[in-house]
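2024-03-11 09:14:02 INFO queue: dequeued item Alcohol dehydrogenase-like 7, len=383
2024-03-11 09:14:02 INFO validating residues
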Amino acid sequence: MGSEGKPIRCRAAVCRRAGERLEIEEVVVSPPRSREVRLKIICSSLCHSDLTFWKITDPPAIFPRILGHEAVGVVESLGEDVNEVKEGDMVIPSLLSDCQECKDCLSEKSNLCSKLPFKISPWMPRDGTSRFTDAKGETIHHFVNVSSFSEYTVVDVAHVTKIDSSVPPSKACLLSCGVSTGFGAAWKSAKVEKGSSVAIFGLGAIGLAVAEGARVCGATKIIGVDLNPDKFEIGKKFGVTDFINPEDCGDKPVSEVIAEMTDGGADYCFECVGLVSLVYEAYASCRKGWGKAIVVGVDTKSYVSISSYDIVHSGKVLMGSLFGNIKAKTDIPYLLKLYMEKELNLDDFVTHEVAFEDINKAFDLLQEGKSIRCVIWMDKAHR
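2024-03-11 09:14:37 INFO prediction written
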């Protein structure tokens, strides 16, 4: 391609100050270095993590920054020592690396790469520099190894998964983060079994993806817990069979209600909001002896304290799940295969689609609770 090895000038939605509207401006994207690829982004979906880092002012917040990490793109050019993909390949970038070389990546037990461990970093993972500058030549920072709110971006090859080009981009991009995280939490972290019972605290996009994962795994009772009663009708599309609104439980704890519904507690409980109080509730809602409570939501400032007596005498498991224990390079193509075979529901996650120029509308929709996933198209011709 004519742009290979040269800087590219393109449009990006730059976050210059916390909570302020993104500004679409011209940026310069440097060529990829060793073990890197430059991607032409087709579309992105807006994840709640983008919203969170758009708002916060304390570290690891840093500005200016290009947000976005759920995306699909085409490989535009390659840096040195890249053999996994070639120019023109359709790929999904992911926030978590899959180097396929370290002990963790070679094991089925973990997706927590040791070679390129996950960080909320403003830089490229191998050399700690940026590939973005603005029109004045000033540095623009990266976001979780992707930065997809740009027509072009540079991503480390360990964060790129080649996919079948026949998959609709607006559905494939969902697997960059949110849907993979929730689905994987049920499928790979909890290992939900056929005929089991599941309780999900929080029916946002992640919680709905957990429900979809539990449904595909064969769970027969999937209980959604949410303060918004409208979520039950939405949840039914993803396998939710029962619904609890904590405000309707009176003085009875939700864990007690779940115990009554499941004859002793759910086999698997998922905390998908990021509240410590719900971690306790999820743990309390698990069945004694074999119940698992899986923490998917993130609360960076609080700690969980459970008595050793409860741990020993209940026999329950409390565990975390980052990116759903998904290994991007092997598991994402498998999930897309399930979608193409109509076994995995991705279509109902996409509630809105906007042009790149209207990216701030996507933020408004998510803040107002009106969207599950809003797809942002970089080029109207692809829609």
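2024-03-11 09:14:37 INFO annotate: The mean pLDDT is 96.
2024-03-11 09:14:38 INFO item closed
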